[in-house]
Amino acid sequence: MAGSKDRTATLTEASLLLAVFFLGTNFVAVKYAVGGIPPLPFVALRFTLAGLLLLGLVLILSPECWPGRRDLVHMAGVGVVGVGMNNVAFTLGVSMTTASETALIYAAVPIWGMILGSLIGLERPTRGGIVGVVVAIAGVCVVVGGGFGGRGESSLIGDSLVVVATVCWGSYAVLSLPLLRKHPPLVVASLTMLFAGLATIPVAVPGLWGADWGEVGAGPWAAFAYSTVLVAAFGFWAWQRGISGVGANRALVYQYLINLVGVASGVLLLGEDLTATKILGGAVILLGVYLARRR
Predict the structure, then answer these.
(1) Where exactly are the structural domains of the chain?
(2) Which of 40, 54, 253, 271 could form a disulfide with 190 if both were Cys (CB 3.0 to 4.6 A apart)?
């Protein structure tokens, strides 16, 4: 019995660490991919394909877990906002700013989830939580403030879009919790991603028809495949599986690791500058999240 629990715990930790690596390096993969593939078609194709891939696994491994009509509608709404709108804003944003700056701003995701949880009555705001939220938002302002002045690739508009993406992603973490209590993570991940991909196809049509696909090189396609299969399909599912196993508070440690991997990969693989402003802003965000989540 103890051995079985140890194996389960080890598998959970392993899946979370793999998810950390894939989700952390995704900032660089998307930045590189949208250098050759238009952002909106990238999002539509990525999540439609990833959703179909995971849905195939659901139908093979656990076809009896298919949700009812009410939960399907719930998944559609969560997918459109938490995955679709999130990744449209994220992909457009990272195409205008740096991967490392995007990773720093994403450290604030738990804050937006806390705010939404308080607004809908899932969490009761505490004095420490309010202080943490204010500190974390101040850190986001420090990072986004670096978008003024046109330094390198950094862009105020791009950073602002990334902030919108983090708000959407924070809402996904909260709004998907009732679904994860009733359905396996694989089912929730597959259907929310598929609904997100299908919802973004209409706005991606002009780019799908207007792009010169013959000019897209092997590098962007490789980055697209990495972001679709290893990040959106496997990484997303592994992250949800891990969170359902260790709980949201402990998973926060892994969220920090994702941001660290994202910043490091942007600096090492893309040669991005890690300025004092970015370091300060990121540290303030992490401090705010720590204060807000401390019990």
Answers:
(1) 17-293
(2) 54
